From TrEMBL:
Pfam families: ABC_tran (PF00005)
Keyword entries, A-Z: ATP-binding, Nucleotide-binding, Transport
Designated name of the protein: Energy-coupling factor ABC transporter ATP-binding protein
Organism: Tabrizicola soli
CDD domains cross-referenced by the UniProt entry: ABC_cobalt_CbiO_domain1
Amino acid sequence: MPDPAPSGIRLDQATVRLGGRVVLDGLRLSLSERRIGILGRNGSGKTTLLRLIAGLIAPDQGRVTVEGADPFADRKAALGNLGILFQNPDHQILFPTVEEELAFGLVQQGLPQREALARAHDLLAGEGRSHWAQAPVSTLSQGQRHYLCLLAVLMMQPRTILLDEPFAGLDLPTQARLSRRLAALPQRLVTITHDPAALEGADRVLWLEAGRIALDGPPAEVLPAFIAEMERIGACDADADLAG
Ligand SMILES: Nc1ncnc2c1ncn2[C@@H]1O[C@H](COP(=O)(O)OP(=O)(O)OP(=O)(O)O)[C@@H](O)[C@H]1O
């Protein structure tokens, strides 16, 4: 198993404001485990944290580095270091056919189209899905499009893959298949979810609450505490403790 990174993901007092509100509040984190979960309820800042780590937004204060590089300033390094599997495949897919979608990232990185397509065909063959190559993406189901997005990320061989609610909207067999596929990957996975069950196998779970880390530890410690708190909040009629 390759060492996923020399230095991992670091946040140093990273603050993000959106619409005049502090959404991530002075986060200090050093993430180097292979299976990391970020858990939080709706609006806690999970997607914003993912976007920050991915370099899609810059912190208003503080600093973010991924493998030593600033992912916002150094997009080229970020593309090699990080892949993102978005919750909705339709926000990710750009091209009409499967092979074009798979080849795109490598072409962006300077590989000739013919070679990028050949790599796409190799990957599909390895997955037993050679018949997908020329298929219009529009003929794939939601679950298949999600899987295509994962393959597109794997084409780039990033050290770390950020997963945003990877199982949302997938049926149980598709979830089980995707879960096995992800578990077998050598890469570091950072999974963002509101579902504690998705993080039972994690090495480390960070519970994000109102843009801060409420608890950080092994799943056996964090998941029961999170579930108990969600049950407590669920028993109330309104999120009276949510600001704004
Ligand atoms: N562009 C924006 N402008 C203003 N506020 C925003 C913007 N994007 C997100 N927010 C606010 O930031 C907070 C965190 O949002 P974020 O999407 O990161 O949460 P989340 O934990 O991913 O939620 P969910 O589980 O519902 O997807 C929310 O209160 C949200 O309303």
